[in-house]
Amino acid sequence: MVASTGRTLRQVFRLACILACFAGAAGHGLLGHAQEAAAAPQRMGVYEMFLHADWVVKAVMLFLLLCSVATWTVFLEKRLLFGRIRRASEKFLATFRTAQRVEHVAAMAAKAPETPLARIWIAAQDEWEVSRRRHGQKPFSPHQVARLLQRMALAAGVAQEQELSKLGGGMGMLATIGSTAPFIGLFGTVWGILHSFADIAAAKATSLSVVAPGIAEALLATAIGLFAAIPAVMIYNAFARDISRMTGAFDNFVAEFTTTVSRELEEGLTA
Hints:
Strand content: under 5%
Number of helices: 9
Radius of gyration: 30 Å
Number of strands: 0
């Protein structure tokens, strides 16, 4: 994702520079008059460039701004969510490691149902309870212990995938914005420059003051595309690392509680 997006951004930047240089060179070649070159053009702000842009370029800019708003909305939402999950999971895991029996862990999980680790444990505990009811009061044989642990691990794995799916919500949108926003902005730039040359041909004007505003308006679309894409890529990579760390924490937790249950069963502490 990082390498491909970096190549994409470099390609878009090169294409935008080539278009700007070509259009600027055309304007300078058509200028040809000293008095026009001496006239200082009035500087246009970003808002003025947006207002004077073609409706297609305006639509591109507005869409890219909406993409940027969506990116930062996902960032704030997931940053708060990940922070809350991290604190709750650390608290639950610390309590889990001090528990003496499986029943104690079940009581802790019931008090923290919003914690992903607790929900993973509850899924495994459900399989534990079903097996105990079916088995009755007889002790488990080594073969039965192995099969029970396998079923508990499978149930925990299903719950873990569900939790990771929830955590990954919005990541696809970030990846899409990060990879396509530069090209959408480049489309607006190409369209704007074509529109500018059409206006020059219609007005039969050779002044740089006629060429430059249209080029600036067109390049603004590429700038907004990069403005939307760069944060999306950085946020995507940061959250991908967070999800990867959480995946490792979930895997470690499943291994820990499987070991705890196995130890209890082998020691005959549960009936």
